[in-house]
Amino acid sequence: MTTPQALSEADRRIVASWAAECAERVLPLFEAEADADDRARDGIDRARAFGRGELDTAGQIRIRFVAGRAAGSARTPAAVAAARAAGQAAGVAHMGAHALGAAAYAAKALAVGDPESARREEVQWQLQRLTPEARDALARLPLLGTDSAGPLGPGLLTTGVLATTIREIQAALGASRPS
Fold first, then answer.
1. What is the largest CA-CA distance in the chain?
2. Where are the domains of the chain?
3. Global pTM?
């Protein structure tokens, strides 16, 4: 049995582009500290290519963790979060719910100086970039914390600023309730 967090392959391809856009927005925060580490940029590029149908799911599943490991090259919380946003974007090929993780980590990366204001501005920016198809796909994901089989289950995304961001996005989308 598959988890509703996976989404269909067609939906994952749709939301991969949005996840890549969210992660790419904060990529300069990572690259300013680790310009020799191309894993985060590569993860974003792979998410975009997956979204365009140029890469297959199986191949991306095998290397989905590579981009997120770039966080080890970063020193500041903003740069670490930016690398994790890229890792989440790369993970969308495996499970669509990672798109919300990419958005949440991007908001966290920008929420260093004035956390709540910057986070809210980022969420608004992210929501404005959603296509109707991506909105529909993301709205079908289970609410954060209601399905344990995936990134929206117990774990890092269910606490702190990441959880606040995902819940705000899901509320704006009118996300579905589990059946």
1. 46
2. 9-173
3. 0.94
